[in-house]
Amino acid sequence: MKKTTAQEKVTEQMHFLKKAHVTEKSGVKSEKENVYTFQVQKDATKKNIAAEIARIYKVTPIGVNIVNLPAKAVVRRGKRGKKQAVKKALVFLKKGDKIAFM
Fold it and tell me: Are 42 and 54 in contact (CB under 8 A)?
């Protein structure tokens, strides 16, 4: 029997998915190419994301790509500010698998 380390226990309890990133472009990709987009935690890895997708949605991810979007400077009502940086994961599913968000 394999011993679990403290790091593995922490990883099992963590939730790496923040929310589904639903846009017009991600909707088209999910219909045509079976690719789903999620916003994820900054410390999430491809393996963590694939494992969590498989556990939550009961599907088989065949690949995960990660995109780090940098913070963006904005001006609102004359005040300068920043939009928060985002880490997105593009999850490629096995043919025939689907994720229903609604």
Answer: no
- Whether the CB-CB separation of 18 and 87 falls below 8 Å is answered with no
Q: Which two tokens stand for residue 63?
A: 């690949």
Provide φ and ψ at 15, rounded to 5°: -115, 115
Residue spans of the chain under pLDDT 50: 10-11
Rounded to whole angstroms, the Cα distance separating 96 from 34 reads: 9
Residue 101's pLDDT is 73
Q: Which residues, in sequence order, are CB contacts of 51 under 8 Å at separation 6+? A: none
Give the fold, CATH level 3, of 15-92.
Alpha-Beta Plaits (3.30.70)
Per-residue pLDDT, 51 = 94
